[in-house]
Every structure is written in C-alpha cells, then in structure tokens.
C-alpha cells in the first residue's frame, strides 16, 4: 500500500519561507510521478507544482518564481520549497502520486496546513 506523509507546514508572515516534505513508502518511488496540490477554505483544490515522467517541473502561474518542487529519490521524498509567501498561499497542502503512465493521482497524503499572515 502506497503511503504519503507530508510535513513542514506552519504559520509564517508574508515574505517568509517554508519547505514541505512528502515521504513516500510502500512503492517504488521512481515509478511514480509526484505533485503538490492545495485547497483553501471555500475553494476548489488546485495543482501547485508537479514533476513529469521526463523530469520537467511544472508550476501554477500563481507560484512561478516563488516555489520550487524537487525530488530526493534516495530518500523517497518530494519537497516543495516555498519562498516569498503571500497570504493567498494559505491552504492545506497535499502531495499526491500517480503511476507515470497514468493521468490520475491515486494516492494522497493527509495534508499539511500552511498559514501566511500579512
């Protein structure tokens, strides 16, 4: 069973930074394509950043230039470095995994809360 566990969320002031981690177990990490999503209260879940099977990093327009997604295959861990945080980045952040030949993310973590105050 694939399990994803996020950590690293917290409360910061605007322009601050946080690094989220997503530890993956129960799977061959290299077989999965990973992504970060977020959901703010009253809003739909949105994609934040993902890594394609070719290793490309794709970002939502709202986070380009501020967020960086990365992998550590040796640690089976996905990261999201978030800099220059804004109050509108406040949300529950989730990591997700899909087999790289699939378009559907089948596995999700429990989420980690990020709160940015002005």
Which helices and strands, and how do they pair?
Blueprint lengths: L2 E5 L2 E4 L4 E8 L6 E8 L6 E6 L5 E3 L7 E6 L4 E6 L8 E9 L7 E2 L3 E6 L1
Could you characterize what this model shows?
With 118 residues, the chain is mainly beta. Helix content is 0%, strand content 53%. It is built from no helices and 11 strands. Strands 2, 4, 5, 6, 9, 10 and 11 form a 7-stranded mixed sheet that branches. Strands 1-3-8-7 form a 4-stranded antiparallel sheet, with no helix packed on it.
- Residue fraction in strands: over 45%
Structural class label: mainly beta
Distance between the termini: 40 Å
Main β sheet profile: 7 strands, mixed
> What series of H and E elements makes up the topology?
EEEEEEEEEEE
Task: Fill in the keyword field for this structure.
single chain, 118 residues, mainly beta, seven-stranded mixed beta sheet, four-stranded antiparallel beta sheet, 0% helix
Task: Give a summary of the structure in a few sentences.
With 118 residues, the protein is mainly β. It contains no helices and eleven strands. The model has no long low-confidence stretch (mean pLDDT 95).
